[in-house]
Amino acid sequence: MYHGNNEGLRALDMAEQRLKEARTTATPAELPGLNLALNIVRDTADDVAPARSLHDILQGA
């Protein structure tokens, strides 16, 4: 998860959480698309986030 007051980062964080939740009930055919979307969200957040906290890095966020 990413810290800060940036609305865009909060939206990306929310999207990441919803995609993670969707994967728990997805059919095998839906998983590749959900995984791709999750990777895109994470990559975008990494590109725009100033820096993640050490706690987040250690937690694998």
How would you characterize this protein structure?
Keywords: Plasmid. With 61 residues, the chain is mostly helical. The protein has one domain (7-59). 70% of the residues lie in helices and 0% in strands. The protein contains three helices and no strands. Helix 1 packs antiparallel against helix 2. The radius of gyration is 12 Å and the shape is elongated. The mean pLDDT is 82.
What is shown here, in short?
70% of the residues lie in helices and 0% in strands.
Characteristics of this structure?
single chain; 61 residues; 3 helices; plasmid
Tally of contiguous helical segments: 3
Query: Which runs of at least 5 residues are low in confidence (pLDDT < 50)?
Result: none
The count of DSSP E runs of length 2 or more, i.e. the number of strands, is 0
Structural class by sheet pairing and helices: mainly alpha
**Largest β-sheet summary:** none
Number of self-contained structural domains: 1
Report mean pLDDT, rounded to a whole number: 82
What's the N-to-C terminus distance?
5 Å
Rg calculated over all Cα atoms: 12 Å
Beta-strand residue fraction:
under 5%
> So what's the overall shape?
elongated
How would you spell out the order of helices and strands? Answer: HHH
Approximately how much helix is present in the residues?
Answer: over 70%
